[in-house]
Design brief:
Helix content: 25-40%
Number of strands: 15
Structural class: alpha/beta
Distance between the termini: 67 Å
Number of helices: 18
Strand order of the largest sheet: 4-5-6-7-8-9-10-11
Largest sheet: 8 strands, parallel
Shape: globular
Radius of gyration: 26 Å
């Protein structure tokens, strides 16, 4: 290493002042190492003779693409390569190089404005001032409404706040052709309440190992919006799903030609794969090869649950997107298991670790156009959930937007909610954005313990019996 310069102690002090030590989050040793690393990596080489070979400073004028990040504040400093021959006379310029950006960093501004409270407290105070959000009416790009007399119980909840919804085809029997899709659409429309008759169910086709290539053109003509891929046995009513995805390549190529998107339940069903790893393995073994085989196919990876999926979608081509549910933004697997099993928090894909939940929050907070709203609201009768072998599915249509607002507020990204809920989905599907609006207000209301589900059954909603801090203005429960 280059010998320490007399100014190194001063530079270390500058970094320490900019990033005060917090014993509750960082050990003193780790804090000193971080500040020292910042100075050594970004400053000291610029005021000491270069000593390293091709992979270091000497003879390598290219900036390091990986900046140093302080472990607590996240402030990132690019590690720049100095020109040779920099001397002591350059110290004032170098000190300003470090000091000015650090003084302007949001972390420092937040400390000054909030008595040392830091960025998190500043964000919390700013969000607390938001009491009203007017957003373009959203759409739900992944919805289950069941069938028969249960339609009248659940369709009004979705029609109250969204303009369109991609309707899942895993009914009993499944919606496997254009004729069944037309008939199901009419049954849903009959359940839409007066005053919201503009609600549009967008139908999907259930892909099976026997779906003929010709059915894609018939589905397109019937107005089917997408085709759904369920790996056989992956979730509710998926026994008729696909067992050999690569065997369906001719159908997928026809879909790409017709510009029909593929909605994917992204989990493998191999019994040797742990249930918490099924999404990651699906990406590696099925989704990546599929995208290579059919390069023009638009794919929506639905209800993603992991950091792996969020990173994959973010880095994938523009023809790949993902929906994210409110439960996967708000809950982790502790919410199923800690303090007793919570059957009404059981869904597939299953809730994951907190690290994955945080990754999903970061994905929606990034503002990326690749992520959009899909509730995966999936009602089941109370008795079917509270049984020795309970059904997978969480009902969230009753309060979807207030739940999403709660999650986006936690992420400090309320300003990103409208694009996630109202713009990114229609843009990806190639449809017009909605023109009317809904209003979210900061007002506490108690979520009911249950809702009617058909003639004599009940469904337990997400957040049942608990208070929500956001409500849709025209549908607020006192």
């Amino acid at each position: 290493m280059a010998p320490a310069h007399p100014c190194s102690i001063f530079l270390l002090a500058c970094a320490s002042i900019c990033f005060p030590w917090n014993p509750n989050t960082t050990s003193l040793a780790a804090h000193v190492r971080s500040c020292s690393h910042l100075c050594v990596s970004s400053i000291v080489p610029r005021i000491s003779p270069p000593r390293f070979g091709p992979s270091g400073w000497a003879g390598d004028p290219t900036p390091n693409p990986t900046p140093f990040a302080h472990p607590r504040t996240g402030f990132r400093v690019p590690i720049r390569t100095p020109p040779p021959g920099v001397g002591v006379m350059d110290v004032p310029r170098i000190v300003l190089d470090l000091w000015i950006p650090l003084r302007r960093h949001p972390f420092r501004r937040d400390r000054r404005r909030n008595g040392g409270g830091g960025r998190e407290e500043a964000m919390a105070k700013a969000m607390a001032r938001v009491t009203r959000l007017v957003v373009t009416r959203p759409d739900d790009w992944h919805l289950h409404v069941r069938d028969g007399n249960r339609l009248a119980s659940v369709v009004p909840h979705s029609a109250a706040w969204c303009a369109r919804a991609i309707i899942m085809p895993n009914t009993t029997p499944p919606i496997t052709n254009a004729v069944l899709a037309r008939q199901y659409r009419e049954r849903i429309r009959m359940a839409v309440p007066d005053g919201r008759k503009t609600f549009e169910p967008l139908m999907t086709l259930y892909l099976t190992d026997r779906t003929p290539v010709e059915e894609m053109a018939r589905a397109k003509e019937a107005g089917v919006a997408a085709v759904k891929l369920y790996p056989a046995g992956a979730t509710t009513n998926s026994d008729s799903g696909v067992k050999d995805v690569m065997g369906r390549i001719p159908v997928l190529e026809e879909m790409a030609r017709l510009n029909m998107p593929l909605c994917v339940h992204g989990e493998v069903v191999d019994p040797d794969v742990d249930i918490f790893d099924r999404e990651k393995v699906f990406i590696e073994k099925i989704l990546q090869p599929l995208l290579e085989k059919v390069p023009q196919l638009k794919v929506i990876m639905e209800h993603i649950t992991t950091k792996d999926a969020a990173e994959f979608v973010a880095q994938a081509p523009e023809r790949v997107a993902a929906t994210i549910t409110p439960q996967h933004l708000l809950l982790n697997r502790n919410d199923i298991l800690v303090g007793g099993i919570k059957p009404h928090h059981y869904c597939l894909p299953i809730l994951k670790r907190e690290t994955h939940r945080q990754a999903l929050l970061a994905a929606v907070a990034s503002g990326s156009r690749k992520f959009f709203l899909g509730t995966d609201s999936a009602p089941h009768p109370k008795g079917a959930k509270e049984s020795s072998c309970g059904c997978a599915g969480i009902y969230s249509a009753h309060a979807a937007m207030p739940l999403y607002a709660l999650a986006f507020e936690e992420a400090g990204a309320l300003d990103k909610l409208e694009a996630f809920a109202s713009f990114n989905g229609p843009d990806f599907y190639g449809r017009e954005r909605n023109q009317d609006q809904i209003t979210l207000v900061r007002k506490e209301w108690m979520v009911p313990e249950s809702y009617d589900f058909g003639d004599e059954e009940l469904v337990i909603p997400l957040w049942a019996g608990k208070k929500l801090e956001w409500a849709i203005e025209e549908n607020t429960n006192e």
